[in-house]
Amino acid sequence: MRNIIVLLAATILAVGFSSCKEEGEGKDKDPARKSFNEVYRPQYHFSPRAHWMNDPNGMVYYEGEYHLFFQHFPQALQWGPMHWGHATAEDLFHWDRHKIALYPDSLGYIFSGSAVVDNNNTTGFKSGDDAPLVAIFTHHDPDNSKEVQSIAYSRDGGESWSKYQGNPVIKNPGIEDFRDPKVFWHKPTARWIMTLAAGDHVRFYSSPDLKEWKLESTFGKNAGAHGGVWECPDLFPLPLDGDEQNKKWVLLVSTNPGAPNGGSGTQYFVGRFDGHRFDNQTQKHRWIDYGSDNYAGVTWSNAPERRLFMGWMNNWTYAEQIPTSTWRGAMTLPRRLSLQTVHGQPRLISQPAREVGDLGQRVFSLEAKKLSENSLNKEFVDIDLREAKISLDMATGNATDIILRLTNKEGRALELGFEKQEKELYLDRRDAGVDSFHQAFPKIHTAPLTQWPDQLNLEIYLDRSSVELFVNGGERVMTDRIFNKKAFSRLEIFTSSGTARLEKLEVSEIKSVWSKEKMN
Question: Does residue 91 have an active-site annotation?
C-alpha cells in the first residue's frame, strides 16, 4: 500500500502542510489549459490530474454520487506525506475533481481508510436535515511509524471536513503495521464494525458511535498468504448464486509482497460473520485478480443494489518508476462483485460495472470463423485500439491452446494464451511496450484454470497503459499495466495444435471521459 520511507517529514509537518495545494485544486478551475491526452494517460480509468496517487480510500455513495477519496501526494511523482484526494461521479466514470479532503496534521500522515453515511446520527455530528459523512482513517506518525485510527466528519456532502477533537479513537496496541480501517453498519447487532489490518492478521472492532471501540476478535495469523504485510481489508456479505436467503461473508485482504505473480496483490476468504467473529472453516484463500496491477482494492459503502469494487492499478515493486511524467497512478475499472458456485466452490466473480457500456461504440464484428494455425490475422486500419473493448466467444473444440496476439506498427506485441495441458491462462507483456524502468516489469503472468472450458468468453479492455482481461464472465481476471507508445493495430487469433471455432468477435471504441463539458 505504501512505502514506509519518510520523505520531508519534519519540514512539511512543521508548517502544517498549509502550502500543499494541488495544481488546479478545487473543482477543475481551468479545464482548457490541458487536454489530458498524454501518451500513457488513461482515458476512461480514473487518474489524478497531477502528481502521485495510490490506494482508493473512503469510497461511499451519497445523495446520487459516488465519492472516491484516494492516497495522494500533491507535490511530487513519488510517494510522500499522504493526503486524501477527492473526486465524485454520478456514473463511476465522469469524475469531478475536488479540493483535498484531508491534510496531514500533528498526528501524522493521512493513510487509508473508509467513509460511511451516519444515517442514525450515532456520532452526534449531524447538523440540519442531512446525515453526516464520517471518514475513518489511519494517522501515521512519520517520526516513530506508530499508527492510530482517527475520524473526521462532513456536514456538507463531502465538500469540507472537520477532524474529531478526540482523535485518535483507537490507539496503537504495540503493532508496527496497524492500519486501513474499513467500517460498516451491522444491522443485526445495531453497531458499527471495523475490519483493521494488524501486521500479519486482521482485527474486528465494534462501536456504537464510531468513537468508542471494542476489540471483538482476530483472524488470519494462520490463514492465507503471508508473503508480506497485510493491508486494506474489507468485509461484506453477498448472496451465493443470487439467493438472498443464503448469504456468505467475503473478507478481502491485500498483501505486499506475496501475490501469485510477484509483488502486491489481493486475496479473499469466504465464510461466516456473526457480528463478533469471522469464521473461514477451510482457511483457504483465493485471489481476486491474477494480474500484477490490482492492489489495495475495497468496495463502496452504501452503494445501491450492488457491491462495487475498485483497486489501485499498480504494483509496489515498480510503482514509483513507471514512465509517466506529470501524474503517477490510476485505478482499475469499477467492478461489480458477486458470489457464485464454480466447480462446487463459492468464488468471487468480478465484472466491469455496467456503466462502462455507455462509453463504447461497436465498430467491428465477425462471426463463425474456424481457428487453427494462423487462422485470423486482422489489420485494423481505421480503428484505434488505444481505448477499446474486444469481446470474443469461442468453442475450444480439440485445440490444445488458444493464442491472441495484439501488435502495433513498432512491432510491439501483447500476447494472451490459454493452455489446455497446463490448465492455465497467461498474459505475456515482455514485449508489449516500454519496460526498462524496472527488471521485474517484463514478465509472463499466469492464472490457473480449474478445468479446460468447452466454451470461452473473453472481454479485453485496453486504455493507453493498461489491459484488463475478464474470462468467462469474470471467473478469472487479470489486470496489467503496459506502456506502448503506439496503439495496437493488428489482432491475431490462432492455435498451435487442433482447431477451435470463433463464434463471435466484437470490437468497440471507448470514448474519453476527459471531455471539457464534464470538466467545467
Answer: no
Residue 159 CA to residue 99 CA, distance in Å, equals 8
**What stretch(es) of the chain map to CATH 2.60.120.560?**
354-519
pTM attached to this predicted model: 0.93
Beta strands in 372-454 (DSSP E): 376-379, 387-395, 401-408, 413-419, 424-431, 444-448
pLDDT at residue 477 above 60?
Answer: yes
* CATH no. for 354-519: 2.60.120.560
Average pLDDT, integer, range 254-268 = 97
3-state secondary structure of 421: coil
CA distances from 239 to 25, 52, 245, 267 (A): 41, 37, 7, 19
pLDDT tens digits along 109-160:
999 999 999 999 999 999 999 999 999 999 999 999 899 999 999 999 999 9
Give ranges for CATH 2.115.10.20 in the chain: 9-13+52-319+335-351
Residue 35 pLDDT class (50, 70, 90 cuts): confident
DSSP classification of residue 14: H
Query: What sections of 41-190 are H helices per DSSP?
Result: none
Give strand pairing partners of 248.
238
What is the CATH class of 9-13+52-319+335-351?
A: mainly beta
Q: Which of 28, 30, 55, 431 is catalytic?
A: 55
Residues constituting the chain: 520
